[in-house]
Amino acid sequence: METVQTVIEFVVAIASLIIVHEVGHFLACRLLDIPVEEFGIGIPPRAITLFEAKGTKFSLNWLPLGGFVRAKGETDPDVPDGLMAAPAWKRILVFLAGPAMNLLTAAILFMAIFASVGSMPDRSYVQLLDVVEGSPAAAAGFQVNDTILQVGDEDINTTGELKRIIYRSLGMPLEVTYERDGSSATTTVTPLANPGDKGAVGIVMGYGEKPFNLLAAIPEGFLSTYDFCSDLVTMIGDLFSGKIPAEEGRLVGFKGMFDMYSVVRESDAESSVPAIANVFYFVTSISISLGLFNLLPVPALDGGRIVFALPELILRRRIPQKFELVVNGVSLILLIILMLVINLQDFINPIELPTP
After folding, report:
1. CB–CB of 226/121 below 8 Å?
2. Alpha carbon separation from 272 to 115, 117, 280 (Å, rounded)
3. Is the pLDDT of residue 217 over 50?
4. CA-based Rg of the chain, rounded to a whole angstrom?
């Protein structure tokens, strides 16, 4: 019975994020006076038509993990008042609105996480959240909860500053001033010359904590979303550059995500963090990943469609519609094949997850 509940929770969470994405496209069309013929929950075939309002059919489809917004004239620029007949700036805003809604959802979820744990990050100081045993940081005497004050003559105010200093000094000793239990001290740590996937000094850095405040949580939610996006983009860059092994950046499908969600739910009982906070964080990570994935400049995705609209916006020349349709069609087929391969891989070679 508990497994059934976990499956239902997972399906509802993922389906909700997809619907939120489509709501972004729908609202943008409404605000920009672009008619929407159908708002579909799930993937066709259609199960039932729920209702119709202002010329839009709202439908429920048989496959739950999906959704779509079918704007009028979305593939034909000759349809008056349709999406493809709209100015380039309007089309770009419509394409941006879906990913933007996912990122906005993530920011709201971060605020909910802060409220559930009763605290939020204190960005006035950088703190060590973990020190890897046998690492340069451990050899230098660092401990969890140490506050990093300075590296050389440079004050440390953000995790980004500390990371940049470390990685521009690989193989070179750094003099670090830190605070522990109200007293400051100085030590020397030498980042690994070739850190690979282990990290240059073997630390997990973050911020301290301060009491939850609703007004302060609003900007902090957006800052946390930005930090997550930045870390994810950096990780992707490290994968392509070879700094991180390819197996550590493996894509996962629905089963892989469900496996990760199951671990989150099963580990709730052993965690000091409220169960709902762990669930919110999982959903937040998926929401951000969904938003950024759709912004990739790949034809058939929102980012690719934006790329096709940019020449018209900048050069006042439109890419031939037939060419765009062919490229988007081929790309869509390739994306579907990729998704099938990724989801099949989850069964053939399941991801390794920690035992709760």
Report:
1. no
2. 15, 10, 15
3. yes
4. 24
